[in-house]
């Protein structure tokens, strides 16, 4: 069943963002992931959002594929960049077929 990955990112070093994106996009593609949404035109319907955090929603064929992407050697350099250039949260959300 499909698994979704929600990335919540606040960039603290903009100079590192392009390199992170390049690595991240390559790794997502390698594991068959798809970009479903980014926050280019996000809008808070409830609560508040000051626009300082970015959101990306990915889809993978399974939770195992999502974990394999996250733990891969391909994505490892991206995680190193993220540790020094971002405040972020990465969450796996199993598709409904995984939990029903």
Describe the structure.
The chain is α+β, with helices and mostly antiparallel strands and 100 residues long. The chain has one domain (3-40, 53-99): Alpha-Beta Plaits. Helix content is 36%, strand content 30%. The protein contains four helices and four strands; from the N terminus they run E-H-E-E-H-H-E-H. The chain has helices at 17-30, 63-70, 76-85, 96-99, and strands at residues 3-11, 34-38, 54-60, 86-94. Strands 2-3-1-4 form a four-stranded antiparallel β-sheet. The longest helix has 14 residues, at 17-30. The radius of gyration is 14 Å and the shape is globular. The model has no long low-confidence stretch (mean pLDDT 92).
Strand ordering within the main sheet: 2-3-1-4
Nearest-integer average pLDDT: 92
User: Topology as H/E string?
Assistant: EHEEHHEH
End-to-end CA span: 11 Å
- Tell me the fraction of residues in β-strands, as a range: 25-35%
Helical fraction: 25-40%
How many strands? 4
Radius of gyration: 14 Å
By CATH reckoning, the class would read Alpha Beta
CATH topology: Alpha-Beta Plaits
- Structural domains: how many: 1
InterPro entries: Dimeric_a/b-barrel (IPR011008), DUF1330 (IPR010753)
Domain DUF1330: 2-95
């Amino acid at each position: 069943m499909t698994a979704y990955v929600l990335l919540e990112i606040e960039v603290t070093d903009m100079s590192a963002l392009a390199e992170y994106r390049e690595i991240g996009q390559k790794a997502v593609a390698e594991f068959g992931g798809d970009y479903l949404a980014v926050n280019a035109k996000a809008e808070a319907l409830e609560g508040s959002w000051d626009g300082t955090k970015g959101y990306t929603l990915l889809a993978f064929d399974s939770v195992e594929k999502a974990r394999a992407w996250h733990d891969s050697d391909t994505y490892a350099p991206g995680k190193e960049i993220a540790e020094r250039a971002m405040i972020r949260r990465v969450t796996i959300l199993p598709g409904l077929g995984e939990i029903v």
